[in-house]
Write a structure and sequence with these properties.
The complex is a heterodimer of chains A (533) and B (266). Chain A has 533 residues and is α+β, with helices and mostly antiparallel strands. Chain A has helices spanning 2-8, 10-39, 84-87, 139-184, 191-219, 253-269, 282-313, 318-330, 335-358, 373-398, 401-409, 414-443, 446-449, 478-487, 492-528, and strands spanning 47-52, 57-67, 75-80, 91-95, 99-103, 108-113, 119-128, 131-135, 223-229, 233-238, 242-246, 272-273, 278-279. A 6-stranded mixed β-sheet of chain B has the order 6-7-8-3-9-10, with helices on both faces. Chain B has a 4-stranded antiparallel β-sheet with strand order 2-1-4-5, covered by helices on one side. In chain B, α3 packs across α4, α3 packs parallel to α6 (165-177) and α6 runs parallel beside α7. The chains are: A alpha+beta (533), B alpha/beta (266).
Amino acid sequence: MTSRLWRSGEPFIWLTGGALATALIMVGGLVAIIVVNAAGFFWPAEVVRLTLKDGSVLTGPVAERERVPGTTDAWRVKIKVANRDLYGADFVWADEAAITRRERPGDVAVVERTEWGILIGTIMALKEGAVTVAAGPAAWPEIERRLPAAAALRAEIRKVEKSDIGAINHEQEKLRLRLRALEARGATSGADGEAARARLATLDEAYKVQETRLADLRGKQLATLVVAADGGKDKELPLAQVLDVSFPNAMGWLAKAGRYVAGVWSFVSDAPRESNTEGGVFPAIFGTVMMVMLMSIMVTPLGVLAAFYLREYARQGTFVSVVRIAVNNLAGVPSIVFGVFGVGFFIYGLGGAIDQLFYAEALPTPTYGTGGILWASLTLALLTIPVVIVATEEGLAAIPGGTREASLALGATKLETTLKVVLPAVMPSILTGLILAMARAAGEVAPLMITGVVKLAPALPVDGFWPFVHLDRKFMHLGFHIYDVGFQSPNVDAARPMVFTTTLLLLAIVVVLNLFAIATRNRLRRKYATSAV
Amino acid sequence: MPVTLNPHATAASIMETPMVEIEKLSLWYGAKQALKDVAMSVPKHRITAYIGPSGCGKSTLLRCLNRMNDLIDGVRIEGAIRIGGTDISDPALDVTELRKRVGMVFQKSNPFPKSIFENAAYGPRILGVRNRTDLDGIVERSLRAAALWEEVADRLHESALGLSGGQQQRLCIARAIAVEPDVLLMDEPCSALDPIATARIEELMLELKNSYTIVIVTHNMQQAARVSDYTGFMLLGELVEFGVTRQLFTNPRDKRTEDYITGRFG
């Protein structure tokens, strides 16, 4: 009977199915945890006001509810009271037994600001200097009216700081380096040097003009708003620091949905604030995508050419087998080892040499002799090259020998055969390799930490200053951002939802990049309709 | 120009013009001798078939004619082969030029993973034909010559791998004749096809012999008897007998040939 059951193959089918189900549950569970934790982050949470037995009042959204440790039926809640500048901590635990009153006041405002996280309280007044412009219920309409102008002013100040003064600084730095280069050549006095010095003087003038302008603009930021927080603590907040005000308890379902969408948008399009715990992650998205693209551009030709030599030209034998095994085993080397190699070879070796040759005037400040997006991409290209080689080689092996023979028999040379018949036929396999390489590279963090990723990059690797693409710049990366926000942030609790949202975003980017590559591969497959791979 | 084609030649073959002349051809794969002193002539615009048991060297002989054996490591060749008067065993000879003059169709159909049009246009493109109108003309002419045009005219730009086995093999023939070679080599072209597809290819060969010199290797003695004008019987690397097909099948001179064609062999 047992033997009959075994011979029917049924148990084996259950075994294989069970293995697949286990894998699916684990992957699905992981994704579900991320999605559940991330998705709610932007939904405006209801604000409660709790009055405790000792008379103290806590206002804020409920972040967590759990059993009091050591008891069986006592519960406590974690309230995000925010107002870090006033209370010192974002979260407060309250035993439910100690709560005497629980209400949800409609007039509680959640103020998103540029510093200290969010502010929760009741808006009391709008002041300009010492003069009260509006107080009580009249304050909010007036604030609402003034917010767009305040935002525009903030944007203008930012533009002056970043673009106008940035451009002056950029040119000053270039002139300074040119003067240093002239000095190094011993040409201290000359038309070139004079011109540079004259230009520097003009720039200094221009800088002073911008400084005055900046001071003028800042002088306009007079308005402050007074917010009453719990415990009789009032906060006078400059309107210039207010990014957004909302009344979550007074909001309808539609309004909340609108804020949700706006929140998601600002998360993916804004720069981070307050050491990455607030604001968006746009620079990290940009850095991740750009690094993966650069890596793809470098790894594909290299890996494909290497695979072609191994499979099409090299005489198959012990040596080639050894090379093949070595290449496959490269994939098992810990990624941090690649990072160390990147630091030693690319950054200190290549980058150092480039600095000596082309950027000598900037030394001892390194230009390419320090971590940057170019070196990080190259390091990851090295890390992922085995994947591309293996996938391409398998594709090449799957092309029937007769296909090559047919081309040769028609008088094509080996090169023509390789380029016109073999390469198009192996294209889907190359893309498969590239997909795997991109997925690996996008999620890699360890080697990046020592080859050019930083917590906060002052500028994107692409900007308006010639030559527009700055491969020597350090960059931000979603994977590192997750680590930084989750474990290196000054306020881990407040930043925790950001960890999930950033993770979800990284997953989404990998999926999008993969879908793009898969679509390309499928189009090629349809075009050639090869049965291979 | 009367030429003696072969020591075994019959009177009927004496008046033919030779296209391929093979003299004392021996071939070794490493230490193993695969062809022993083969000498024969392939007449122009005729179908010449090589028959023999597996491993007798008939495919090897065929592959000598377009030097496909060059691709295999450790092959050594002695003797001479002349095609249209040119000695093709000359190491200085450009094999790609030779292969443009000597087309080949393989046992297993091997269309490129490209469109039908691109398959037929591959050879001309290699020869440097760029003009679209010229290519269109060549593709249509060669597909018609391979009796495939009617079936594929409306889907020229679809993948060739979507065709049936017989169609694929005719496409390979079209691809080979698109460059108008002098000689067409066919290495068991029907062994993977069903009888109907085989019949179509055989018909096609009979049409093509008006323009091309065809050399075919076949396992199938009936096929050799049906289509070929001349047949050579090979055994263990030797060309045992070569002559007019009907004569070879009805009145073999050699005992071994007789044994083979009557099925008393192997």
